[in-house]
Amino acid sequence: MVITDLRNETRNTSLQPILDKKGGLYVVQTGPMDSITIKIYTSVNPLKIATDNRGTTVELMMDTPPGSARNVSATRRIEYWSAVSRKQLMQGGLVGVLWQSGQEIQLFFGLIASSAHEVQSSVEDNNETMRLRVKFFDPAIHVKVIEWCQHGQRARHDTRILLIEAPIMYESNQPGEVMR
Fold first, then answer.
1. Are 106 and 134 in contact (CB under 8 A)?
2. I need a labelling partner for 139 at 20 to 30 A (CA). Which of 12, 79, 103, 111 fits?
3. What is the pLDDT averaged over residues 146-164?
């Protein structure tokens, strides 16, 4: 659904209010009683590629989601992220990056490499943006990040990057041996 909304030329989509608010919950009805809810983070800006004990990660800067996460008080922002650290942007959580350049849209999946403390530290100085490190499954995103960092704002004018978070822990859903 999100990809369909991104390709829609009109601004009359379920995604548009979320883009206008700089992030939020995207709810898709999958049946009369069923729905899927994902969190969308906007204005994702890949900053750099780094290597550490978790392997190769990409540092992303993005809009802080609306609500308490944008509180003007740094103490309140840190308290918010501390309270939700086991439910939102948790280390090991599965995320996807939708990278749209014109009509071409690519989806890259990865695991959050930032600890809860790192997320809290990233919001300490600014209530509008936050930082997150992601270890992506497909290394092709590294080439895109390098190109992104080498180009100026003019070359980026038709590009939109969103981070999508599904509230699941990848490690707990990883395919494994079938129990007998």
1. no
2. 103
3. 84
Residues 111 and 91: their CA atoms lie apart, in Å, by: 7
What is the chain's length? Answer: 180
Q: Kindly report, residue by residue over 117-144, the tens digit of the pLDDT.
A: 999 999 999 999 999 999 999 999 999 9
CA distance 110 to 61: 15
Q: Are 163 and 132 in contact (CB under 8 A)?
A: yes
Angle 8-16-1 from CA coordinates, rounded to 5°: 55
Domains of the chain: 39-169 (2.40.30.230)
Spatial separation of the C-alpha atoms in residues 70 and 5, rounded to whole Å: 26
Q: Checking DSSP bridges between strand 55-63 and strand 24-29, what pairing results, if any?
A: unpaired
**One-letter identity of residue 126:** N
Residue 55 CA: distances (Å) to CA of 23, 83, 163, 171: 29, 28, 20, 17
Pairing of strands 104-112, 93-101: antiparallel
| pTM passes above 0.85 | yes
